Amino acid sequence: MSYEPTILGFLCNWCSYAGADLAGVSRLQYPPNIRVIRVMCSGRVDPKFVFEALKIGIDGIIVMGCHPGDCHYLEGNYEAEKKFNMLKKFLTFINLDNRIRLEWVSASEGMRFAEIVSEFTNSIKELGPSPLKEDKDLLDKLEAIEMAADSYRIRALVGRERTIIESENVYGEKVPQDKFDNIFNTAIYDEYMRCRILLSLKKNSKSVKVLASELEIDPSEVLEHILILKGSNSITMGEIEGITPIYEYTMEG
Ligand code: FES
Description:
The protein has helices spanning 16-25, 47-55, 76-92, 110-127, 136-149, 152-166, 177-203, 208-215, 219-231, and strands at residues 7-12, 34-39, 60-65, 100-104, 235-241, 244-249. It is of the alpha/beta class. Helix 3 (76-92) crosses helix 6 (152-166), helix 7 (177-203) crosses helix 9 (219-231) and helix 8 crosses helix 9. The termini are far apart. The model has no long low-confidence stretch (mean pLDDT 95).
């Protein structure tokens, strides 16, 4: 029996949901794998919705909204795109980035809706069932991603990207897109690693060396993250084993 993926679609009320409706009344064929959740705007799709869907074993998630310039709330789809790009970057760490998709579909594009759903369903079929259904280690990494995506630093960068790029700062400078991208990519990586360290120390206290082998990164890099986490009182140095400090998670950070 061939594998049938479960696809979740978040469709904006004003364009994509109407496009799906048109596909239905026009009797256009598309796979029945998609379950639709109607949202008022694609910008309403909180990254938490995507994380929850992945955690319960949904194989593919698609967000659909109005074409740029057509959002009923002016810039909701712009916000959706920023959040989506952030999610995609995080999900590359665990090779799940191909399981999410963002598309623009207008109320008159029933055919486009049917084609996108067919193509996305086939691409998920090729990927196979979500590995999150069985891989506990991957679920732990997803938890770190969820925590990192909700951090103040990432939310500030996502929410202020446009202002940072388009408006001048207090020194009269605009930050070029490529420079912003570098800052953003670094922040994404650092927050992910720091959240993995935090969650690991929450389970039990560890040395830098043990964390480095667990995260498969250099001990000097772990130490840099440890110093930042210590500075925010998220962790503390506990006992010393021989000459090796052991770090502990605290509730303060
Ligand atoms: S109302 Fe459709 S994307 Fe905002």
